[in-house]
Design goal:
The complex is a heterodimer of chains A (177) and B (138).
Chain A: H1 21-30, E1 33-39, E2 45-50, E3 52-55, E4 61-67, H2 74-81, E5 83-90, E6 95-108, H3 111-131, H4 137-143, E7 147-160, E8 170-172
Antiparallel strand pairs in A: 1-2, 1-5, 3-4, 4-7, 5-6, 6-7, 7-8
Chain B: H1 9-12, E1 18-23, E2 29-34, E3 37-41, E4 44-49, H2 53-61, E5 64-71, E6 76-88, H3 92-107, E7 118-131
The chains are: A alpha+beta (177), B alpha+beta (138).
Chain lengths: 177, 138
């Protein structure tokens, strides 16, 4: 008898991984821009601008802070299938990592979240000024939007996305695992 | 049939990296930063295939792609839903993109790293202009 193929929603959740110290420092000290991806039930990819992020105390979760105009379809997709990808970059150095994982919870942002985003926004503007010295302050500042929604997810894999021959390599879990 | 509006053309040429989201056939989304979205005609765009192999694999399994480009001056972004059609490794689109990639690489310190391997041609499924508000103090 033919057995039905399990769909993506029936797949056992992957195990979470610990974010390495080097990547944690990147997230907290250098990264200045991010973008998230989800997908609908019928595998339509969706993108969401991210204003900031914070690593969980256990080193296994990340929380992304998203502005309102970019969260359309996000919660629905996450509650449907839980799949989330988050790419975080240090622009213009181009050091970039992608975090993939499973949705844990969401909530409206709080004051502490906005303070984190404000620090990231300052970092972004400082980096952009080096590349676009003539750009008006308000143009650069407007790129990082005021967040409205906080989404926490458990990280199950981390990939290098820095342009070059190593792009796409998996850092966590290590290849031999 | 969805057509790219004329007003998006300068945004595609502004040199600001775009973002692309794809999804594998087993449902895992993938986000990548892309240096170029090339206007082919009013119903097609080409994306540069350099080294994002997961994206390349994904669109061959599931041809749908999400791309967002930024107009920082106009405080606007554009969302494109695309469908992968085919890949070109020679011809006028490839040559034009190759030249643009070289220019982008030289202005961003990535010469020798950015290298066009193929121009992937996508049909435009939908296009939406999404303005964003400036962050004002609460």
């Amino acid at each position: 008898m033919e057995r039905p193929t399990p769909g993506p929603e029936t797949r056992p959740p992957p195990r979470s991984v610990m974010i390495p110290e080097k990547i944690a420092r990147f997230l907290e000290q250098r990264a200045n821009v991010a973008f998230a991806g989800t997908r609908s039930r019928d595998l339509l990819p969706l993108g969401h601008r991210v204003s900031g992020w914070r690593m969980g105390a256990d080193g296994r979760t990340l929380t992304a802070f998203l502005p309102e105009p970019f969260s359309a379809g996000l919660v629905e997709s996450l509650q449907d299938n839980g799949e989330l990808a988050l790419t975080v970059e240090d622009f213009p150095a181009h050091e970039t990592y992608q975090f993939k994982g499973r949705y844990v919870r969401h909530r409206p942002v709080q004051g502490e979240d906005i303070a984190i985003v404000d620090r990231i926004r300052e970092r972004f503007m400082k980096s952009m000024r080096a590349v676009f010295p003539m750009a008006p302050e308000r143009t650069l500042g407007a790129f990082i939007l005021r967040p409205a929604l906080s989404v926490e997810f458990e990280v199950s894999a981390i990939y290098v996305q820095t342009p070059g021959p190593g792009a796409g390599a998996r850092i966590m879990p290590p290849a031999e695992a | 049939m969805t057509r790219l509006p004329d007003e998006i053309r300068p945004v595609l040429d502004n040199g600001i990296p775009a973002v692309m989201v794809t999804c594998s056939s087993d449902g895992i989304p993938n986000v990548t930063v892309i240096s170029q979205v090339y206007y082919v005609d009013d119903t097609h765009a080409a994306l540069s295939f350099q080294f994002f192999s997961k994206t390349i694999r994904n669109v061959r399994e599931n041809p749908r792609a999400y791309v967002r480009v930024w107009d920082m001056i106009g405080h606007t972004s554009w969302v494109l839903q695309l469908e992968f059609q085919h890949s070109e490794t020679e011809g006028p689109v490839f040559d034009a993109m190759d030249m643009q990639i070289e220019a982008i690489a030289s202005t961003t310190g990535m010469s020798g790293i950015f290298k066009l391997r193929a121009a992937d041609i996508y049909r435009v499924v939908s296009v939406e202009r999404v303005p964003y508000a400036e962050w004002t103090a609460s």
